[in-house]
Design a protein that fits this description.
The complex is a heterodimer of chains A (457) and B (443).
Chain A lengths: L5 E2 L18 E5 L5 E6 L5 E8 L13 H8 L11 H8 L3 E6 L4 E8 L3 H13 L5 H20 L2 H13 L13 H5 L3 H11 L5 E7 L3 H12 L22 E8 L4 E8 L10 H13 L5 H9 L3 E8 L8 E9 L5 H18 L3 H17 L4 H13 L6 H10 L3 H11 L5 E9 L16
Parallel strand pairs in A: 1-5, 3-7, 8-12
Antiparallel strand pairs in A: 2-3, 4-6, 4-7, 5-6, 9-11, 9-12, 10-11
Helix pairs in contact in A: 1-4, 1-7, 3-8, 9-15, 11-15
Chain B lengths: L10 H7 L11 E4 L5 E6 L5 E8 L13 H9 L2 E2 L2 E2 H10 L3 E6 L4 E8 L2 H16 L5 H18 L3 H14 L12 H5 L3 H11 L5 E7 L3 H12 L21 E5 L5 E9 L8 H13 L5 H8 L7 E5 L7 E9 L3 H18 L3 H13 L1 H4 L3 H13 L6 H11 L2 H11 L6 E5 L6 E2 L1
Parallel strand pairs in B: 2-8, 9-13
Antiparallel strand pairs in B: 1-2, 3-7, 3-8, 4-5, 6-7, 9-14, 10-12, 10-13, 11-12
The chains are: A alpha+beta (457), B alpha+beta (443).
């Protein structure tokens, strides 16, 4: 868990199996200005979590201005006409609250967790910054430096993060998922407050947002409060969103990243379908099961075979996330070779595991195991209000009704071994494969050459 | 599954646990098993879940230097072979019923957690497996060799990454010859030296019932909880209670270590031996630290270093209260070219805090946050489990949660200034800087 305003890449949702929640107490509303409100009553503790989700993420950025969604997220704490810079956080803190925000490919989300009687403060402040953000040159010039430090910490100095960044921009050539959420350093260096303002004006409108509230609240009272604070904000005409489709990949792609590290690392992936029609699609559910069979628990195939048995790897994982606003998804495998083993050997071993699935499918025992875990996860996650709100917000901003959560366990339970095999055969092919590897470089403590290109400012 | 991290002290988790208060009282029941293990139980039937945590005074402070890593490997290996079940058998039995087994290790504690559905079949299979892990670990030799190789690989990787380098060097510099330094002393050679016999001996020395604290939370009756606790602890090794850890001695002079690294950012840590669990100065230090660097966006360090000047993404300070004096630590990462400026600013901010103390307005805001946010600390079974486990392990009073807000509300600005100045000698801080191209050396 990150400690400050952060950005999440889509991949961080890998492995989070989304699942059903308590439905009886979930209510939906829509204000005249287009703001949608979803309230889930959960009376276990006298607390509430409020999240405002904007349908604006790196998916909506353009070349030369990458990272602006995330920069704006930082700027949302930097003052409005009424609330001066930094005051937002102070007011929430004084109410005993926790707050933060995160940006992903698909969304920007702001949240507060509070004792339940403090919900009005949260909604009041969120409504204010939805409409009245100041965006001054002075605050921007400081905050953009913070974001560059964030990029250094998150990506520049982390070899595996660099591999992931290069992987994304290799597996996607056309689709905006090719670009990092945090933005390219060059774009951050050249970003101005005008870019941030343009982003805010384009996307921060009630008709592009969803308010999700989970906690010990009454839905009608939440609606009343939401009306009180958000009703006066005018809806806006949103910029046209052009369809963006990644052309079919025809031939393997490879990229190598050199960075100071000891062990190599390999990250590989295939283009696979994202969920599109929650009623009719079956392939995404089959792929979800496949991810579980490969990496759903410590005895799953990858760990059992490559870490425990052949010991070719010290770590391996597999992942797939079907929910994506951009309607693009990848099925990914990654791992760190054991000492003395190469990235190429691990890659071959991972591909061999995929071949086994294509040839023989998965066993009934494996299917049942994954399904048992899904059912249990469905119960466990009710222990976290925050996570429940996350699921609702992510689905809704991606264009799916939260109600599809209800059928999720049943749809996974319906997946057969043949379907898993069919999906693997269809998509996990050599021509549809992208491989990124880390070529570890030794650290020379006497190296006095300048790091990176000189910065001219 | 978490091998990569299992040596890491749970500093972050612990820092989140530092403060809590009570108004929504948690009804903690407490008893001893027939073998002398302490049991802490909170009954709650809202969700069909049972959470169990079993902790032993078997953390990294029980390591010996030449075999640093032993405590961590012993804990880790217990889950990879027990009562004739292989690692694969264990994983399957747990996954088949949708249960989750987790573990943690810090300098004081080795912990094992189980989360399971409360329905009979699931619960029984999960418990049976969990109990075998606790009571009949096999420490299979071939698994030990495999895991040692993985750990060594991860250590070598970590030795290239500035964040890992800095925290390891920091713990060694801060604690010197004290056993709290041992978690920073794990090296490929010390891991290589660990033999199966060492694990068995470590287990039989430190995993006795008298060293165990069982915490249970959730959908189970008191009667069943008592039966579970008995089963968990009935055939643990017959071992005496572990000795108290040695007292931490304070540094006699300032210490600064610089380690060159080609990364774009320098990683900077400053610290001093901080406080204990149940420390007489706990509340002034805790509330004061919220103002200094614990209160996220509203702390002085964040305001000065990040908000006003944009020098960092993250700067923080925290105390990790432990059985003996756990660390007081300040940390930040910043572009190497401005590392000196940032470090200077952090020192100035700390000095001003020490000499000038905090304002009444700051204290009020801190209390509002800590007291007002109390319900958030206890809004899930998993959080309550962690609290009762901590209360049990450190033998804090059962009223700890109920009294917390009262204690926080009593703290005064004078107490904060006094406690910080008595406890933290800023002329003798340990400073570790990883980054830049300076030749390594102590000053």
């Amino acid at each position: 868990m990150l400690i400050r305003r952060w950005c999440w890449v889509l991949g961080m949702f890998l492995g989070l199996v989304f699942s059903a929640i308590a439905f009886a107490e979930t209510h939906e509303f829509k204000l005249d200005n287009g703001l949608r409100i979803i309230v889930q009553e959960d009376h276990r503790s006298p607390v509430v979590v409020a999240q405002v989700w904007y349908r604006a993420g790196s998916l909506d950025e353009v070349n030369g201005k990458t990272g602006v969604a995330h920069v704006l997220e930082h700027m949302m704490f930097k003052g409005t006409k009424k609330i001066k810079a930094g005051q937002f956080s102070r007011l929430i803190a004084a109410a005993g609250g926790r707050e933060n925000a995160f940006t992903s490919n698909d969304n920007t989300t702001y949240f507060q967790q509070l004792e339940k009687s403090q919900l009005p403060l949260s909604l009041k402040l969120e409504a204010d910054r939805m409409a009245n953000l100041l965006l001054t040159e002075e605050e921007f010039s400081k905050e953009i430096k913070v974001v560059m430090e964030e990029r250094r910490w998150r990506t520049e100095d982390k070899p595996q993060s660099k591999v992931n960044e290069q992987f994304q921009s290799t597996i996607y050539h056309v689709h905006p998922y090719a670009r990092p959420v945090i933005g390219w350093m060059n774009d951050l260096e050249n970003m101005t407050v005008v870019d941030a303002r343009e982003w805010y004006n384009n996307w921060y409108a009630p008709n592009n947002a969803i308010l999700v509230v989970v906690g010990d609240v009454n839905a009608q009272e939440v609606l009343k409060l939401a009306k009180q604070y958000f009703d006066s904000i005018k809806s806006r005409v949103l910029p046209e969103r052009k369809p963006q489709v990644e052309p079919e990949q025809k031939g393997e792609r490879r990229v190598v990243v050199k960075a100071q590290a000891k062990l190599p690392y390999v990250l590989m992936g295939y283009h696979v379908p994202a969920l599109n029609d929650a009623e009719k699609d079956w392939e995404p559910y089959a792929l979800e099961i496949l991810a579980g069979v490969l990496d759903g628990n410590a005895s799953a195939r990858l760990n059992q075979s490559l870490v425990r048995k052949s010991q070719i790897a010290v770590d391996v994982s597999a992942g797939y996330s079907m929910i994506s606003r951009g309607r693009q998804a990848t099925f990914e495998l990654d791992g760190t070779p054991s000492e003395g083993k190469t990235a190429a050997e691990l890659e071959a071993a991972l591909l061999q595991e995929i071949e086994k699935i294509k040839q023989s499918g998965v066993t009934e025992e494996e299917l049942q195991r994954v399904k048992a875990q899904v059912i249990a996860a469905d119960v466990y996650q009710r222990d976290s209000m925050f996570y429940q709100a996350m699921q609702i917000g992510q689905l809704e901003t991606s264009g799916f009704p939260w109600k599809i959560l209800k059928d999720y366990p049943a749809r996974l339970a319906a997946v057969t071994s043949e379907q898993v095999q069919m999906a693997a055969k269809k998509y996990l092919t050599r021509d549809n494969l992208t491989v990124a590897t880390l070529d570890p470089q030794p650290i020379d403590p006497n190296d006095k050459t300048p790091k990176g290109k000189p910065h001219v400012h | 599954m978490c091998t990569k991290y299992f040596f890491k002290n749970l500093l972050v988790a612990a820092s989140l646990l530092i403060g809590l208060q009570a108004q929504a009282a948690v009804n903690i029941q407490h008893w001893q098993t027939s073998t002398g293990a302490e049991v802490y139980f909170v009954e709650n039937h809202d969700l069909p879940i049972i959470d169990i945590s079993t902790s032993f005074a078997a953390g990294s402070a029980r390591d010996e230097k030449a075999k640093a890593g032993l405590a961590g490997i012993a804990r880790h290996l217990m889950g990879l072979g027990a009562a004739g079940l292989s690692d694969e058998d264990i994983s399957k039995r747990i996954a088949d019923v949708g249960a989750v087994i987790g573990g943690e290790l810090d300098a004081d504690r080795a912990g094992f957690k189980l989360r399971t559905l409360s329905s009979a079949r699931e619960r029984e299979q999960a418990l049976d497996t969990y109990i075998r892990i606790l009571q009949q670990p096999d420490f299979p030799a071939e698994v030990l060799e495999r895991e040692k190789a993985r750990i060594v690989a991860n250590l070598r990787e970590a030795a290239t990454q500035p964040e890992s380098i800095s925290s390891k060097v920091f713990m060694k510099a801060l604690y010197g010859n004290h056993s709290y330094a041992l978690e920073g002393s794990v090296e490929p050679e010390t891991v290589a030296a660990i033999k199966r016999e060492d694990l068995k001996k470590f287990y039989s020395t430190y995993y006795g019932a008298k060293n165990a604290v069982v915490a249970l939370m959730g959908d189970v009756s008191r009667e069943d909880a008592a039966k579970i606790a008995e089963r968990l602890t009935s055939s643990l090794p017959d071992a005496p209670k572990a000795n108290a850890l040695p007292v931490v001695t304070y540094p006699t002079q300032a210490y600064e270590q610089r380690i060159p690294h080609p990364a774009s950012q320098s990683h900077i840590l400053l610290g001093y031996p901080g406080m204990k669990r149940g420390d007489a100065d706990y509340f002034p230090l805790y509330v004061g630290n919220y103002i200094l660097g614990g209160g996220g966006f509203v702390s002085r360090l964040t305001e000065e270093v990040r908000e006003k000047r944009g020098l960092v993404y993250s700067v923080y300070s925290y105390f990790v209260p432990m059985a003996e004096l756990g660390p007081f630590q300040i940390g930040l990462q910043t572009k190497t070219e401005q590392a000196e400026d940032a470090l200077k600013l952090v020192r100035e901010t700390l000095d001003k805090f020490m000499s000038g103390g905090v304002t009444e307005a700051e204290l009020t805001a801190a209390k509002q946050n800590i007291i007002g946010g109390f319900p958030l600390r206890l809004d899930s079974n998993s959080e309550i489990l962690d609290y009762i486990s901590m209360i049990g392990f450190y033998r804090l009073p059962l009223t700890y949660l109920d009294d917390f807000n009262k204690q926080v509300s009593k703290v005064t600005t004078a107490q904060i200034k006094d406690a910080f100045n008595r406890r933290i000698d800023t002329r003798k801080l340990v400073t570790v800087i990883v980054g830049g191209d300076q030749i390594s050396g102590d000053k």
